[in-house]
Amino acid sequence: MMIKLNPLFMKYWLREIEGKQAHDPIFMEKMKSLSSRCLYVPGPVIVGAGPSGLATAACLKEKGVPSLILERSNCIASLWQLKTYDRLRLHLPKQFCELPLMGFPTDFPTYPSKQQFVDYLEAYARKFDIEPKFNETVSQAEYDGTLGFWRVRSIGVKGEAMEYVCRWLVVATGENAEALMPEVEGMGKFGGEIRHTSSYKSGEEFRGKRVLVVGCGNSGMEVCLDLCNHNAKPSLVVRDSVHVLPQEMLGISTFGLSMWLLKWMPLRLVDLFLLIVSRLILGDTARLGLARPKLGPLELKNLSGKTPVLDVGTLAKIKSGDIEVRPSIKSLKRHAVEFSNGKTENFDAIILATGYKSNVPSWLKEKEMFSEKDGYPRRPFPNGWKGECGLYAVGFTKRGLLGTSMDAMKIAQDIQCCWNEEAMHLLHQSSPL
Ligand SMILES: Cc1cc2nc3c(=O)[nH]c(=O)nc-3n(C[C@H](O)[C@H](O)[C@H](O)COP(=O)(O)OP(=O)(O)OC[C@H]3O[C@@H](n4cnc5c(N)ncnc54)[C@H](O)[C@@H]3O)c2cc1C
Ligand SMILES: NC(=O)c1ccc[n+]([C@@H]2O[C@H](COP(=O)([O-])OP(=O)(O)OC[C@H]3O[C@@H](n4cnc5c(N)ncnc54)[C@H](OP(=O)(O)O)[C@@H]3O)[C@@H](O)[C@H]2O)c1
């Protein structure tokens, strides 16, 4: 749904701003600076075709607002399709992971596999007729106060530049846009392979090898289990404390149970309950080298965003000695790793399960809504979704797909109000392609 920035549109656009600025030399200079490869998008431009971008486009569509998604890769949900391992399943029950306006098929299991989730997203995009523009990496977006529009620049795979002009900009590039690679002394010297979990697929290629997995979040724990299942010999670096909870308690998902308990009990009491039941089910994790943080799992999540690990079988492998826990790394040698306790051990490969970061500061030229430090909205949940001048953020709540759905619905509602007032007016007066 695009309109070329044609002379007729320009005429009405100029009329729209009451003719005042049309005589302003700075404004006229800006107009001339818009390149020939420039498209006016009447609705919002959404950056990113992951679950967040798709959910926002669907909610907008349902409200009669067209949108355009720009996606750097060649498919929807690229994180899920291209950067996750084979054995991945949703770790929360499906009812907490569905996007607005369309549930999961009833024959899907409680914890859908990665392929089932991708199939669901493909069906979702088809249902709402969402056709992102693929292979377009947004390299810069800034609000042009003189024009009163967002100017979004993208680069294609062959380096071709494009500019989009729009009234609303929705940031949907995700909390996991780039792999977080730590600096480790001697990294260049290590003779074996060093790989981030975003390019790990299966333990098959590590069969029989000694593999050091760095980081004990959900990725690190699950990759260790996968390595074990493929007869590799994994060790796990745990540099700090971590909350490991069973995925289910008393036959109910730990997440669902926590949500339900929070309706009746204060957060700290729910945390206490979770810790007692975890202790009964899992035993004392500190004895395995996984000391618990001082704050409870939900309180810690609320204050720092640190996600508790939901155990899917890794702990049993640590107990049995199939996975060994190691302290933080001091330095790397040609075939060995020296740990902070002074011990040195040989490894064939290192897998960095060290997490991800937002890439928003690298392309969004805006300092109010997003923090330059971590690329997240400055305002805490639930108020981080809306900025100034038609800027929005979806999927930055540190609350997974549930947070995505909440943001998407609020954004669509908010844009619809303005759309009804102003955008439709402009749309009717300009000529569609
Ligand atoms: C291994 C793993 C497992 C997970 N499991 C769960 C789970 O079970 N449940 C849950 O709720 N959450 C889970 N998550 C969290 C996950 O982030 C969300 O489920 C979901 O993918 C977030 O969707 P999103 O659209 O916000 O971000 P993403 O899925 O990351 O999508 C963002 C999109 O933006 C694109 N993009 C980025 N930068 C640009 C740019 N400059 N220009 C154009 N396009 C760009 C990316 O290519 C990507 O396609 C998991 C995360 C990981 C890493
Ligand atoms: N569906 C699923 O089952 C599933 C599977 C995987 C991931 N996920 C989700 O995906 C998101 C990302 O998870 P993730 O596990 O990839 O990342 P993460 O949750 O950010 O965990 C990264 C881990 O790496 C550690 N770490 C970072 N730098 C380190 C270093 N230099 N040395 C040692 N340890 C280091 C961190 O320790 P500190 O805590 O000390 O910083 C942390 O334990 C999360 O939301 C997660 O829940 C879900």
UniProtKB/TrEMBL annotation:
Species annotation: Hibiscus syriacus (Rose of Sharon)
Give the keywords, sorted: Auxin biosynthesis, FAD, Flavoprotein, Monooxygenase, NADP, Oxidoreductase
Q: Which reaction does it catalyse?
A: indole-3-pyruvate + NADPH + O2 + H(+) = (indol-3-yl)acetate + CO2 + NADP(+) + H2O
Quote the EC number: 1.-.-.-
SUPFAM superfamilies per the UniProt record, alphabetical? FAD/NAD(P)-binding domain (SSF51905)
- Which InterPro entries does the record associate with it? Auxin_biosynth/cation_transpt (IPR050982), FAD/NAD-bd_sf (IPR036188), Flavin_mOase-like (IPR020946)
- The protein's name is Flavin-containing monooxygenase
**GO terms assigned for molecular function:** flavin adenine dinucleotide binding; indole-3-pyruvate monooxygenase activity; N,N-dimethylaniline monooxygenase activity; NADP binding
Q: Which residues form the signal peptide?
A: none
Q: Which family does it belong to?
A: Belongs to the FMO family.
